[in-house]
Specification:
The chain is of the alpha+beta class. The protein is built from 16 helices and 31 strands.
Length: about 775
């Protein structure tokens, strides 16, 4: 794995810049002193903020400071389920240095919020529904005083028995006024009576993966003279956050401004508004700037996680291994609140059969509330869980039929023009067979030598207890898919403005740079269209038109498309006077390397000369074609487009100890078009590594609803030592004609596919079923030696 990019992306600032240090903004400016041999689309343009991040001068929310700053702390419930009998804040209010204490009684507007379903209280009032739920917040003149004051708030609880088993949620007493069932999707496709000659069944469990951002949540709220408030935070969806916050404050949205600071890592919804709303309340109450910097424990308790999932599968196939029918039951544990569970369930049900042709499919999907930690957006939500299960089923079919696992998959792969079990025709490029063949045919890594200097190759490392004779090598496959943009009728739209003056272009777009490379892409688009080398991307805030959330790779498509349209409008403004002067259409003029030339060579001038001191600007929107919700049978054109990936994993397993080392991951991916080669490689490598974490170590464990070890010691993350050789063996550039530039999102589908490939490889090495992620050591211990 490339470590340089990870270092740049995860570096934290050590200085304390003031608020106005954000004028350059995340991704703002350009490093002209960095060598750039090429510009425009297709170039490996470096990130504009790379230098600031590596030097530690980039302003994250945790680094901000303002005059008269107060510090906030939040009191959180120690119980997963309890009735609140009383809240006594007098002990906190009487402490020297405490300026304000707020509870549910102090929320002036809506008491509940939610990006998708408004069901989550700002502060618990009568019931606590999960461990770590906010009860009250304090503002004080020192962070230690704030924490002590929060601890001094006396809350009397009647502890209730938590509902932590999602299967029991159906019969349990309602945990919420909306009930325990969030959504049920019954998908019906084909003939329910169809059967195959060969049938395999499986039960699979997927654990609770945490986004584990390298920088914990932080924010700064500053009161405004008009009675409003400005909030500086690492939001990934600032306009939605603004609207939610304003509703809770009882204010009009234009009196709340959200300014996006640097985002220190995001693999889904980066910042829950539950961190921002108490900050704003305290700032309005005190009339002073208030800052909150969450501890790692608070971060684990407060934000959402990947849905733990229980999956039951039955696959039918003919004697040749061709799929006949897939039956499945999928149960998502949403935790205490709905959040993105409906969307995640739709993806899980729709992709339950994988990128394979299945004539008959009958899937039941449920998302339910429990007293477990809340679940929400994490890369590949829904799709990752079902990929692990259906690929486990494909391995079982291959073993039962005596067919090579890769060959079995190839006999069933989806292609353009095939129909999904939702009834939607696959109209985008779907080179699934090509991807799988590429990783299958890629040379396998050499076997480790039995020399002492190669002991580090053993699972467990150089001082591990394993013996070389107990190590078995396994090769496995994973083939996955994700949807692009939102789904089921989501109105996907983004707005961008491009302004050019004195040879410098500025892009104004509220698409948040979360590490996916949007600001670099925006620079490349303008360079390509206008031939202007110096391009700045303005800081993001809610004074700009909305661009939507930074999920599902949507900013590459929607916001990139808006930037391209705006740049083309400016291009027309630039070229029209020249075309009119020479009696030709603008289509006969081209811009390249900062020069404007005509098709016949009569006209040749520079962009700067053509600008002649003028300021040109244009604003444009991009809105993909609409989708529709799944109906009562799980049918409908719910997705704008699809992206695919195939991964071959090679692992070494100590079959006596159950320790696992991933040796190599070979990746072939459907990318549409490569816009920035180096950034694309980094995104794929990062996605594969995150998937390895889900496969082998990442599991936020709970005991009766209580999060155990909410820290980076108890929650293991893959490090550079855990990252294997990642070989990107093929990138299929078959452009999606309905997507701007023809490109597809690149980050989520490797996360979806990698865990399934690792599990497949462990099955190959051990002969064990491996039906749980992350894979526990006892699941990798072979029952008998394997030759």
């Amino acid at each position: 794995m490339s470590s340089d990019a990870a270092t740049a992306a995860n570096a934290t600032s050590t200085s304390l810049p003031r608020i106005d240090a954000l004028s350059g903004g995340p991704g703002g400016g350009s490093d002209q002193d960095l060598e750039q041999p090429r510009t425009g689309l297709g170039a490996s343009l470096p990130a504009a903020d790379a230098r600031a991040k590596t030097e530690g001068t980039f302003p994250y929310a945790a680094d901000l400071w303002a005059e008269g700053l107060l510090w906030a702390a939040v009191l959180r419930s120690p119980h997963p389920h309890a009735r609140i009998l009383s809240i006594d804040t007098s002990g906190a209010e009487e402490m020297p240095g405490v300026r304000a204490v707020v509870t549910h009684e102090d929320v002036p507007g809506e008491s509940n919020y939610g990006r998708h379903v408004v069901d989550r209280p700002v502060f618990a009032s009568d019931l606590v529904r999960h461990h770590g739920e906010p009860i009250a917040a304090v503002a004080a003149d020192h962070p230690d005083t704030a924490r002590l004051a929060a601890a001094a708030i006396a809350v009397r609880y009647e502890v209730l028995e938590p509902v932590t088993d999602p299967e029991k949620a159906f019969e349990a007493e309602p945990l919420h006024p909306d009930g325990n069932l969030i959504r049920h999707i019954p998908l019906r496709y084909g003939d329910a009576e169809a059967t195959g000659e060969v049938v395999v069944e499986g039960l699979y469990r997927i654990g609770r993966q945490d986004p584990a951002p390298i920088g914990a949540e932080a924010g700064l709220a500053v009161p405004r003279p008009d009675g409003g408030v400005e909030i500086y935070t690492s939001s990934t969806d600032p306009h939605t956050d603004r609207d939610l916050i304003a509703a809770c404050f009882g204010l009009e949205p234009d009196r709340v401004k959200v300014v996006v600071t640097g985002v220190p890592g995001a693999t889904g919804d980066r910042e829950d508004p539950g961190f921002q709303i108490p900050l704003g309340l305290l700032a309005l109450r005190t009339g002073c700037p208030v800052k909150l910097a969450a501890s790692r424990e608070e971060s684990f308790l407060g934000h959402t996680h990947r849905h733990p999932t229980l999956l039951r599968y039955r696959h039918h196939a003919d004697a040749e291994g061709r799929l006949v029918k897939v039956e499945a039951q999928i149960l998502l544990d949403a935790g205490a609140y709905a959040d993105a569970s409906s969307e995640s369930l739709a993806a899980a049900v729709a992709f339950a059969c994988g990128p394979y042709v299945v004539p008959h499919a009958f899937i039941e999907g449920w998302a339910v509330r429990t007293n477990n930690p809340p679940s929400g957006h994490v890369r590949g939500e829904g799709a990752m869980q079902v990929c692990a299960a259906y690929e486990g089923q494909m391995d079982k079919l291959a073993a039962k039929l005596g067919i090579d696992p890769a060959e079995l998959r190839l006999r069933n792969t989806l292609s353009t023009g095939d129909i999904l079990p939702t009834g939607q025709t696959v109209t985008c490029p779907a080179p699934v067979a090509e991807l799988l063949q590429a990783v299958r045919d890629f040379p396998l890594p050499a076997l480790p030598k039995d020399a002492p200097e190669d002991d580090w190759l053993l699972p467990g490392g150089p001082e591990g207890a394993g013996e070389p004779g107990a190590v078995r090598r396994g090769v496995g496959y994973g083939v996955g898919m994700v949807h692009m943009l939102g789904a089921e009728g989501t109105d996907e739209v983004s707005t961008a403005t491009v302004r050019v003056h004195d040879g410098v272009a500025t892009v104004i777009c509220a698409a948040v740079e979360t590490g996916q490379g949007f600001t670099t892409l925006a620079r490349q688009i303008v360079q390509e269209v206008l031939g202007v080398e110096e391009v700045h991307v303005a800081a993001v805030d809610t004074d700009q038109p909305p661009a939507g959330p930074a999920t599902h790779g949507r900013h590459t498509w929607v916001s990139g498309g808006a930037v391209e349209r705006a740049a083309k409008m400016v291009r027309t403004q630039l070229l029209q006077p020249l075309a009119h002067k020479f009696g030709m259409s603008t289509e006969l003029l081209q811009i390249a390397d900062g020069k404007i030339t005509s098709y016949d060579g009569v006209l040749s001038t520079t962009v700067m000369e053509a600008m002649d001191g003028k300021e040109l600007w244009a604003t444009a929107q991009c809105r993909p074609h609409p989708t529709e919700p799944l109906d009562e049978a799980g049918q409908g054109d719910a997705f704008v487009g699809l992206a695919f990936c195939a991964v071959r994993a090679v692992v070494d397993v100590d079959i006596e100890l159950g320790s696992i080392r991933v040796v190599e991951m070979a990746v072939a991916q459907d990318v549409g078009r490569v816009l920035n080669p180096s950034q694309l490689a980094i995104r794929i490598e990062a996605g594969i590594t995150q998937g390895i974490g889900a496969a082998l170590m990442e599991n936020l464990r709970t005991a009766k609803g209580l999060i155990r070890h909410p820290d980076l010691t108890g929650y293991a993350l893959p490090t550079a030592l855990d990252a294997p050789d990642i070989r990107i063996v093929k990138l299929v550039e078959e452009r999606d004609v309905v997507a701007p530039f023809g490109a597809k999102p690149a980050s989520a589908v490797p996360v979806v596919t990698a865990p399934a490939a690792v599990a497949s490889a462990v099955r190959s090495a051990t002969g064990r079923p491996v039906n749980r992620l992350p894979i526990r050591p006892q699941a990798a211990v072979a029952t008998a030696p394997k030759g």
